[in-house]
Amino acid sequence: MKKFIIPALAASFVLSSVGSVLAAPHDQQKIKSVDFIGMDAPKTDQEKNNLMYSKASVEVTYVDGSKKTLPLSYETLFRPGDVINGKTAGITMNANGEIMTKADGTPYVSTAPDMNSLMKVPGLQENTYYMISHYESMPKNENGLENPGTMSLSTVKMDPATGKLTVVDIKPIDFSAVHGIWKPCAGLLTPWNTHLGSEETDPDARAHEANPSKSPVTNFMKNYYNDPTMIGNPYYYGHVPEVMVSANGDTSVVKHYSMGRMAFERVKVMPDNRTVIYGVDSNPGGFFMYVADKAQDLSAGTLYAAKWIQTSTDNEVSANLEWIKLGHASDAEIQQLAETKKFSDIFDVTDDAVKGKAEGYTPVKTPANGKKVEWLKVKSGMEKAAAFLETHRYAAYVGSTVEFNKMEGLDFNEKDNKAYLAISYQENTMLAEPTAPADDIQLPKISAGGVYELSFQPNRKTQDGEKIDSHYVPVSMAGLVMGEDLATPDADGNKANVDKIANPDNLVYSPKMRTLFIAEDSDNHENCYTWAYNVDTKKLSRILSVPGGGESTGLQMIDNLDGFTYLMNSSQNPGYVGYFAGLPSLDGDIKAKKDK
């Protein structure tokens, strides 16, 4: 995607609907349905390059049959670099709790805000909330070291008359107990009111071991620990972090080693509070499921990988899914292995196909080795270490499908027992590859990607006949909302149909509005958009445009927060932290508003 130099916008904002509509009498009535009325693609240079904006609206139909149209607009919460209560937004700390600064003493400030979790925490004052925000990357410092990522905790106040949110305090979250946070990307608020984040890449342990002093993870840890002698450990990174927040604003953090190690995008906790399905931002990548031993406790469980059984090869793509058990483990078990094992303790490996075939190695193609084929043999007794520390390698090794291309965000529609999953680019390993070690997925190329729908069944069995102890096992996958490549770019440079999605990334679903929200990270649209897709009417509406060069990120849907409905939305490079607000609660329990 081409980049524009817009210094004033290299920051972070928020979305809201016009506050004046909130005092309307219909706010006291129950809502029957919501229909998003989309906006045109940006036309002026200002719209294309300088604005994060919405000209969309919603038509609200009430149970008495009356209707009202509410316009949507964009409202700023804060920008990285803003000073809030004497503290700078978007900064990061090292392991000693010191703000990381440039040579001139000024702090590094992220231009890559991502996920937001706005949450109510018991014990806070009325109309006061916390918000966790991800910052996927920080600028590199002058000596070329990798800067640690960061998350922040904001204190947010709501005006109960208008729904307007104001950030009154902000601070970085301390990750020193878990060796820092590596490229946090998407995330979600769990049903038990904690924040599940992600580490978007898993450093290649084989490459690290070959040259540990020069590896990215060593550079990262040198910087984080302010120790030039540090040698990194790749097995500390590529996990799902969970953040707990107390009423006084204290945070505690764990990384769930038992959920495997990979390039996590967004995981989704299912209604049983035990089953978790994964979006994985890899090329190629697998599709994974975790079933925890106990509800609301992700510290131990069983990890599974999917096998794609294709049933259609045309644009109405579909497949059945079977499951292979990778293993059972606890966080403590795998963390101990992470601290004591290196790649060569787990695998024998060769890149020589002749040797591999002769000596009984298994060929795999994974994110770590890219286009090359790697020949592996698990060392005796190392199956658990392989499954949970080298998850993609082991998944391919045992025959699951590691061919998905940038599988990104996902969310679940409980009423219909369906999930929605983004495939950002349907190309590369998702096409026919006759010479590849495995070729389960053989689809037509759609560089604009699409959103797939998953169906579920309870208590399925693995390929080996072992029962999976979950009511939420994905059993099929089919294309739902697909992009459309253009034969030649249009007059604005779009390589994909501008009125359809292109390269979906973040997804969130609103059960009250029966609407799936889709955010783009597109090389095929000149501007990235956020879309609303009604799962009943199949109507797709563009509701937000991001400045050129920016990615639409950080979606969080809140159907009812003390009488208001919010859609959080950020953007990276240039970036924003934001929210759509101002729709009456879809539960119809709006408090009376005073005229002003």
From TrEMBL:
InterPro entries: PhoX (IPR008557). It comes from Paenibacillus aceris. PANTHER family: DUF839 DOMAIN-CONTAINING PROTEIN, SLR8030 PROTEIN. It holds the Pfam family PhoX. Keywords: Signal. This is Secreted PhoX family phosphatase. Residues 1-23 form the signal peptide.
